[in-house]
Amino acid sequence: MKVFELVAIWADIIANWDSSEEIEDQGVFNAIKEAVNFHQRFDLDGFFRKMLPSQSENGSQSSVIGWVSTFVTKAIAAYPSATWRACSCIHTLLHAPNFSLGTQDARKTIAESFAQAAFSRFKSISDSPAGLWKPLLLAISSCYICYPDAIEQVLNKFDGNGFAIWTSALAQVSSSSFNPGLSSESEIKLAVLTLSTVINHLMSLSMGGTKCYKTAMYH
């Protein structure tokens, strides 16, 4: 059996993975990183993006990236350490795969799914600042950088003020007074790029975006 075929079977299985054992889940997340590295180095024909029949769900089709993304989306709503690991995978999955022009719709769908799951989890813990704020808000940032308009729509569809709520919370996490705040160079760069994109977007709008803009600026 070829490595590509083995990876496809593995990805199909983890899409329906329902483990709550941290050690087992950690092994899956480690394997995801290895699979992405393998894809970048050897997947010249785009096998990871090809639609394949599922062996576990009759009649359905998806891709290796799609199955892996399903696992990550579910993990966002799991126990805290799984949420952290899932959020750390999002940026890698959105930016590492060599999405061709013909698969941009698939990438956009994955980004929307990630953003909705992350925002849903954030809303469930948003009453008071918590350690999970940072990974969830930065995960949404990774999605927003790829598709600003689409992710704004996703957030506002989930909550009428979803975009403003996320922007304000991201600004709060990015402040020096928030704990745990941004700690790595990559986190700081992502937050700065995201907030810059948001501010430029809001400044281009009419008064409808002013309230959200001021909220972000004063956190």
TrEMBL record:
<dbReference type="GO" id="GO:0006606">
    <property type="term" value="P:protein import into nucleus"/>
</dbReference>
<dbReference type="GO" id="GO:0005829">
    <property type="term" value="C:cytosol"/>
</dbReference>
<protein>
    <recommendedName>
        <fullName>ARM repeat superfamily protein</fullName>
    </recommendedName>
</protein>
<dbReference type="GO" id="GO:0005635">
    <property type="term" value="C:nuclear envelope"/>
</dbReference>
<dbReference type="GO" id="GO:0005049">
    <property type="term" value="F:nuclear export signal receptor activity"/>
</dbReference>
<dbReference type="GO" id="GO:0006611">
    <property type="term" value="P:protein export from nucleus"/>
</dbReference>
